[in-house]
Amino acid sequence: MSMLTRPLTKADYDEIVKVIDRWWGGPTSALAHPIFFYELGRMARVVESDGLLVGFLFGFICPDAEVGYVHLVGIHPDYRRRGVGKLLYASFEQDCRREGCKELKALTTLGNEASVRFHQALDWTVAEIEDYAGPGRMRIVFTRSLTNR
What is the third-level CATH fold of 1-57+71-89? Predict the structure, then answer.
């Protein structure tokens, strides 16, 4: 299977908002806010396989910090566990290094064990942080230093 990673286009964004709820198994399209294309889309990536969009990563560099932040990742259900996520993260990391980032960061909710296992397999640090998203709203925070590698 041949896979290509490249920057996000408007056509890609339009396709993502059509398929994201199905790919995620529930209402998620609000997380694919247009800001992640129009204002923050420079760092967003997609993966194609034989011309078919099979994965995306919405990420950006945090203002006033040297941190690349992964906001949202989606993988076509038929292409999971085939290296699409790893390819997206490697491409985003490369872009962040080129921009001078010192760290990568991502979040998930408690109970998302697939996300925890994925980030651990890529050697990210995992921390459960109480009240991260407000009172009583714990989040799992993933970080990866880019200076030690």
Answer: Aminopeptidase (3.40.630)
